[in-house]
Structure formats: structure tokens, C-alpha cells
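Need Lipoprotein's 3D structure for a figure. Predict it.
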Amino acid sequence: MYHKLIISLLCIFFISCNKSENNRTIDFSKDRDFRIINIFNEQTYADLEQRLPNNIKPNAESEESYAFYSYLSLKPNKDYTFLIGNKFMYGTYSVINKDEILLKSEEFGDIPLKIMKEANGCIQIHGDFKAYKSDMMLELDGNTKYYLNLNTDFEKLGKENDIRSVAFNQWRFQPQQKETDEEIKNRLILNLKYIAAYMRVHMYGGFNQIHTAGIHSPFLYARNGLFLYEWQRVPYFWKHVFYDEKDAEKAFKLLRNTFRTAEPPKFIDNWLAYNERCLQTVIKNLEEEDI
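Structure prediction for Lipoprotein:
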């Protein structure tokens, strides 16, 4: 009798565990925006699982700056955008049994993502990223499978500031041939509008800090204004926005000339708000300038 009772209790326990695992509180079919807070290749994950299991929990956050601006954004119309570091991807997605989503991209193919674990408002997913390559994803021996930790703490954005939309990221698509002066100017303006929106998101989104590593920029941001670096100090990533270094230098010279002639806005004792206002002034002058 006691033997049967123990077996019954064990069955109840295992059924309860399985039910808990299947009834996740975070549902991909409802939550639309996730911040990518950590990335593990399979070798690193297996090593940490043996030595430091707390470091691979779903809510374990990387100390690298990419954890503050990388994202997976799922739109209600089944479009998605995806950014890790400086690598952008977009396409359509589908939800499979609430435990898996399939990302589809013309450039990078299909990427199934399996929900593995959940903890404290975060989830961990696993997938094979194949052709998608990011500087933040260390590939060992050709293994392109990774675990990603996602946090649901991203605020919903209004359309005017949705830096995760494809429309706001057109400047990321590097041209396949040299561009005209007008095309270079338009690419520059799109990049500046993204930077301004990135600042507004942090101004109004309740963030504790802003990570300027999340924006391709030739600027130094300071309390008393926006400063343009000398050409030699402009980061490589910003130059790479353009077809080649010559086109990037054309954009830089155009920006420098605008800086020299633009009237600075009235000072605001808020460095982020003032930098955003300076950017808006530069954008307006560029749009009015004839090439």
C-alpha cells in the first residue's frame, strides 16, 4: 500500500513539473519586444553549465554594451526586426505551439528559435543562426548554434520613435555601388534621424542610462553640446555605413560644413535633450542644403 502511495505521489510530482514547464508566463504570440541581454555559443554554455550554472540562467545579463540595445522585435503583422551589436536582420515570423518561433529572412534564410527556459521576466532561446554573422557571436569550429537570453523590459515605442522598425534602419543597408552626392546626403540624414530617435527613446522610455555604442556616429556627446570628431578619429563602423571610405569622407565633409554654419540651439541643462536638439538643427540644415 505504501509502495503504491509513493508511486502515486511521484506521478503527481512529475505531472505537476511538466505542466509548469508547458504553461509559460511569457508567450511569444503576445509579447512583441525583447531585449537581447546575453549570448552563448554551445561550447561556452556547456562549460558554464558545469562550473557556473547561475551565469547561464535566462536572466543572466552580459556586461557588454550590446545587452542594452540589441533586440528581437515581433510586429503584430508578423514582421520582425532583429539586431545583435551592429548586425541587423528583418523578415517575417511565425509562432509554432508557443514554444518555438520561426524567423524567415531573404538574406539569412530560416532560423527556428526554441524556447528553453524562463526566469524573472526573461526567457532563453536556442537556435542555429547559419548565415547570420555578428561580431558579438563567437563561432567555434563552424558551430553556428547559440543560446540567447531575452528580457521583456523594453517599453513599447510610438511609431515616431520606433528605432526597431525597418523604415528607421534603411541607412544600415550598405549600397552595392558608389552613390551620388544626393544619395550620400540622404543616407547621412537617415543615419542622423536614427541617432536623434535613439536619444528620444532613452529620454522618454524610463531608461537609467544610454549606451552610445548602440548608434553609428561620428560625434562626441557632451553636456554643453554635440562635437564632431576629426576625420582620423571617426569610428570604422560609421564609415562602413557608406559604400567605401571615399563616400564616407564626402558625407563627413558635408556634415562638417553644416556644423560650421549651423546656429546652435538655445542651451538646455540636460545633455541628452540638448544633444538631440543639436542633431535636429543639423538635420534641418542638411535637408535645406543644395548639393
